[in-house]
Amino acid sequence: MSDLIILVPDKNMEAAVEGILDRSKSLGLSQIHHRILVHPARDPGCLGQGDQFLRSFTRSHRHGLILFDRDGCGREQESREILESDVEARLRDSGWDDRARAIVIDPELEIWVWSDSPHITAALWCKGDLAELRRWLIEHQHWTEGRLKPDDPKAAMEKILRLNHRPRSSSIYRELARKVSLQRCQNAAFLKLKSVLAVWFPA
Fold this sequence. Notes:
The chain has helices spanning 11-21, 42-54, 80-96, 118-124, 130-139, 153-163, 170-179, 188-200, and strands at 2-8, 34-38, 61-69, 100-105. The protein has two domains: 2-110 and 182-200, 3-Layer(aba) Sandwich (Rossmann fold), CATH 3.40.50; 114-176, no CATH class. By secondary structure, the chain is of the alpha/beta class.
C-alpha cells in the first residue's frame, strides 16, 4: 500500500505540491511515497467529481488529498471551509472514511507564491529586490499599499512574467515550492495542508 494519492486541477498545482513534498524533512515529516493526478475538468472536476475520481484508490493508498482553487471552481460564492466540508463528506462516503482531506486555496494557488522571500524576486522579477518589485506593483495598481499580498495574486504574477517575457510555467511553481521557506506562508489552506500531513506522516 502506498502512502498518499493526490488529486489537483492542473500542472501548476501539481508542480507546487511536488516541490513541497520534496521537502518533507523541512516540514518535519517522514518521507512520503505519493502519486499526483490531474483532473481533466480542472477545479470544478476536483470539487464535483474528486471523490469518485479517487474511489478506486481507497485500498491501494493509506491517504487521499484533493486540492483546488476556490476561484474558478464554480461555487465561488461559498467559503473554502464549506467547500472542503462538502468534498470531505463525499470522500468519507466513497470509502475513505477519515483517511482523506480536501484543501481549497482561497482565492487560488498564486496566493502561496507571494511572501517576503528573496526567491520570489529571483523567479519572477530579475530586476531588483523584493521591495522594488512591491513598489512597482503598487504603482501599477496590482498591490494596495499596506496589504501583505497583491490584490489579485494571479494577475500580479502574470503581469510581472509578461514584463520579463517569461511564460507562466509549472517549473516556476516547482522552483518556488522547493526554495521558499515553508515557514513563511501563513495562508489558511497551506497551514491546513501542513497540519494534515504532520498528523498522517510524522517524522
